[in-house]
Design brief:
Blueprint lengths: L3 H6 L2 H13 L8 H13 L3 E6 L3 E7 L2 E11 L26 H16 L6 E9 L7 H7 L10 E8 L7 E2 L3 E4 L1 E10 L3 E2 L9 H19 L6 E10 L5 E2 L2 E10 L2 H21 L3 E10 L2 E3 L1 H15 L4 E2 L10 H7 L2 E7 L22 H17 L7
Helix pairs in contact: 2-4, 4-10, 6-7, 8-10
The structure holds nickel (II) ion.
Length: 396
């Protein structure tokens, strides 16, 4: 029997110091050289078998047990965001324009904490744990790069486990939903071509701006009129680019945006309607159009068996009232790519900043989280992992 809570608690000071160090030194996608260097060094110190440069700046550490058994993949992401931090804390980012504004500094710290805690129980371990420190989650590219470099092979994992600190929920609450919990994302680029001319002579021009305005409005009808009301979807136009002067009707307009859905069928429906609407409006307005859609990430889908098993373990730490089964978000996460292949559980750990009068969410320049969530998360994740590979590890 392992007392996960006490063992994680004994790492508290180290966890907080490490998280603050990562927070002070944020690194953007595929540039996590300092971070991954620290990760590799720490895993080496713990005696894990370490591979670096997996998916450019990713690190994999394998903790091999004394006996044979299943392989558990534990995933932590490492990258920061291009945001100028506005927090006046002693551990604020020292790199202007870069900030850990999503909690990945915490995730990397937690991953190392779990490795440390479980490496002390190596003798009891039946199987192995594959710690995957992933780069470039924020641009949705790190998981793909690591998969391309063989992270899901040799040894091939049996289960994927991971967590995201979630500062919209108080500490003690966990989001442990079944099925899709984070949306799949696609990006789109719409080009509209009219006929440029003088701003004073619209009758001899074809105005792509008026066409773009109609397209933006009409796209709003996809979610409200074409998607099953019991399903979820988002279509957001996030950028419009056209024109150069007060008195010129431009030749072209370009729209960018994102599509989010939990199901591929819904995504396909949204995309088909988008193409039809753009094509129809453009031709009605005398423009020509192209629509380019790129699928960026698949939904994060929790496997029902792994989720049920995980809930039983996590419940011991937070009680029934701490387990929220309905927490979902239209935000995307490329851990879904691992979980598409290897069944898994990705859960949210409440980490709201105590006493905050105004809420600053993920990706906000004043984002922060409750550091009490660090030892708790180490206990939760270590115990969820141990449930697969340490037969004697029962109880919280
Ligand atoms: Ni994140």
């Amino acid at each position: 029997m392992i007392d996960f809570k006490a063992e994680a608690e004994s790492l508290r000071d180290e966890l907080i110091a490490r998280r603050r160090d990562f927070h002070i030194h944020p690194e953007l996608a595929f540039e996590e050289y300092r971070t991954s260097g620290i990760v590799a060094e720490e895993l080496n110190k713990l005696g894990l078998e370490v591979q670096t440069g997996v998916g450019k700046t990713g690190v994999v550490g394998i903790l091999e047990g004394a006996k044979d058994g299943p392989t558990v993949l534990v995933r932590a992401d490492m990258d920061a965001l291009p945001i100028l931090e506005k927090n006046a804390v002693e551990y604020a980012s020292q790199t202007p324009g870069k900030m850990h504004a999503c909690g990945h500094d915490g995730h990397t710290t937690i991953g190392l904490g779990v490795a440390k805690l479980l490496s002390k129980h190596r003798d009891e371990l039946a199987g192995r744990i594959k710690f995957v420190f992933q780069p470039a989650e924020e641009i949705v590219g790190g998981a793909k790069a690591m998969v391309a470099d063989g992270v899901l092979q040799d040894p091939r994992p049996d289960v994927t486990l991971g967590l995201h600190l979630w500062n919209s929920m108080p500490i003690g609450k966990l989001g442990v939903g079944d099925g899709p919990v984070m949306a799949g994302s696609s990006i789109f680029t719409i080009n509209l071509t009219g006929k440029g001319g003088h701003g004073a002579l619209p009758d001899v021009s074809i105005d792509p701006i008026v066409c773009a305005a109609q397209v933006v409005t009409a796209l709003q009808s996809i979610v409200s009129r074409n998607v099953d009301p019991l399903e979820s979807a988002v279509v957001s136009v996030t950028r419009i680019q056209a024109g150069t002067a007060y008195n010129i009707i431009p030749q072209d307009a370009e729209l960018w945006g994102t599509i989010r859905t939990f199901k591929n069928e819904v995504r396909d429906r949204v995309e088909n309607r988008m193409r039809e609407i753009v094509d129809g409006i453009a031709s009605a307005m005398g423009c020509t159009s192209t629509v380019e859609i790129v699928h960026k990430s698949v939904p994060v889908r929790n496997d029902s068996t792994v989720t049920e098993r995980g809930r039983e373990v996590l419940r011991q730490f937070v009680g029934d009232e701490g387990i929220l089964t309905t927490e979902r978000t239209m935000g995307a996460e490329d851990v879904g790519l691992f979980m598409d292949d290897i069944p898994g559980l990705y859960f949210f750990v409440g980490a709201a900043v105590p006493g905050q009068t105004e809420y600053y969410g993920h990706h906000h320049p004043r984002f922060d989280f409750d550091e009490n969530a660090l030892p708790l998360s180490v206990a939760l994740l270590a115990s969820a992992v141990a449930d697969y590979v340490i037969p004697t590890a029962t109880g919280a």
